[in-house]
Queue: 4 jobs
Job 1
Amino acid sequence: LSLLRQELSDALEEWEDDGVCRRISLATGEAPADFLRGEIHKVKQRFPGLDCTVYAIHNDYFGENITVAGLVTATDLIRQLKGKDLGEELLIPGVMLRHEQDKFLDDWTIADVQHALGVPVRTVDNDGMQFLLALLGVEEDPAVGREKCGILSIKARPYATVRLIEDRFIMRRRGIREPKKDESGLLFSTV
């Protein structure tokens, strides 16, 4: 969690509020819920138009002593969130899904949960930049792999600006101070 805190802090340095107005929810296990509330509070200070409610999901499926997000099931999500106003999107940690990223541990799919709750569900990896982008509603372009230069396609943000922000974030995380450009203008380093 401390790495997520640092990555989120770094990501927040790169972004400015451009009038974000978004109401969403985040569901997680009971153990990380307070930590995530604290981190979201920091994001809200920078982006006052963001309204994010964190739901700590009690684990009835595996038992009350299980409090981690990685063992929350779709059954528990639906049972505890059905009928609540979740906003325009529900974020969940990617660790709630099996390693194939297509089903929960109780064999329900994300589509099943979306249908049951009546709201889009988005998984978020344990990465500060990705967490911030999900909170802000920024869409990744699935046709462009993040591993291939960290290029993002952002709605309502100039492509070049976002690309530079993402490149600078990756370089800072890797300790690169002075990037170089190749013939196509892409930033890189030989570190």
Job 2
Amino acid sequence: LNSKLNRPAPHPGRGPRDEFRAEGIDPEWTSRTPKYRAPEAYGQPSTMICSTTMLPEPRNAVKAFMVNGEGWVLVIRRRPNDVHRPGQWDLPGGRLEVGEDPYEGLRREVREETGMTVDIEVPLDVHYFTRADGQVITMIIFLCRARAADVRLSEEHTEHEWVDVREAAQRQPHWLPRVVERYERWTSVLR
């Protein structure tokens, strides 16, 4: 017996699609379904029961590669008890609200985290990843110019530094060197 479906094991040489065809179930439909169970496994011979695994809603995020008048980049350190990457250096920014404009969301995040106002110039990079808590994130990193150098950190961060661009590339997170490379390429084009 096939213990998962509580029915006889498939005939050698027959695949699961053949089993579904024999039962009158469209195998193409079941192949697109994340999980499926045979109706008889639930004692309901005339009804197909389908269950799906709930995946986290994909989220969009933005980060500011913020450069001041001297060409230094702002990095901020996450608090030690932060859920995501505690105590690590990062760029200002965060997740967008559903339907929020990325430019407005970045201005809001930078203002909330640093108390600063920025001019957003261009997107530098896009980073796609899954966080340790299972959230799927598409993050856009923008080149921004700081209007002033005064930083007032929120409770989400413990310290900040204005660092040389090359030093920023050596900090966490792991995607930052690629952003620095793109920044250097962008600025060389403008010269």
Job 3
Amino acid sequence: DVMDFDKCKIVVNKLSKDFKDLQTIYPCISGEPLLHPDMVKIVDLIRSKGIHCGFTTNASMLSRQKSRELVKAGITSLAFSLDTTDKKKYEYLQYGGDLKTVEKNILDFKNEFLKHNNYFSATINFVVSEENENEKDIFLKKWKDHGFNVSFSNYCNIFDRNRPYKEEIEWGPQTRQPCWALWQAMYLNEE
């Protein structure tokens, strides 16, 4: 399910009114945001309130036209999920996906963004797994050379009952600090 635009408008209007320190809204935190039929309108709505807007995409649907529309709407940041530099591995990990097209879409977005802004800051998120751990250095160099931040995180099977849980970590009121950004960013989804 996705939040329809009218409901989104009510929520964004309320957030912008009630949370004066809110700096960023990230619409659609699970799934592919560009599947939402009104994502450009949502970005435009959020930006019309003076609030930054960004999301993470796999870039498979990020055409040059969609990049233009997002930039025109005022998108302030995008992060990209990309887990390999190998064409065949990408086809396997993204079931039939086209790595060359996705890389072109990412670079086209950067170029379109720079036509209208005097800065560019975007991150490419790479989830490290057994299939791609040998690619980290190549991946880092490739995307750093294109001016992107690169973030690595380890694959974690959320269904694995043997993973460490928060209860096993030693922390409590004497060591835990409150989050300074608690009311400065908001993730917006149907729930």
Job 4
Amino acid sequence: LTTDESQLSGSVVSSQWSVVKNNGFTLIELLVYTATLSLVLILSVIFVMSVLEATAKSNAKEEVQANASAIIQLFDITVRHSQSVYDPTSDFTGDPGQLSLVSNRDLLPEEQESYVDLYVDDGKFCLKRDFHGVSCVSSSKTELTSLTFREITQAGGVESIQMIFTIRYKSPKQEYYFTETYQVSARVRPY
């Protein structure tokens, strides 16, 4: 072999060695790749967990507000369509309280008036009408933790009722609890 040929053959060997080297990963390159991938995965998991937590908290708030809206609407309609407060069974001092009303709405043919009760039963806001049974408006995902009524007599003897209630979202995880207190009043409208 001439020197040119030996240099050429050494160059080819070196070139082949270089090609083989460029087709694979070094240990350091593999470690950098693994660390980068791990970091991206960890950040993705943290992001997904925070999105799920925010969604759960938002759902809890929406559930509480929807139930509170149904309770307020039932209270308002029931009080406005009542003739008077029935004091013997109303409880304005306790928590949970009870409101009993005299009504002339949705009467059976033989009735002149009926009695309506608003109260809490097992954490649910319930309405009981004579001969019509009990209906509860709050869902199983929420519970009323406080319910009080206050009778307000205005000038001319017109009665208004104030209701204050606290409703919370029931969750196995305490960080998803959501509680709100509402205050609403309605006027009895005797016809």
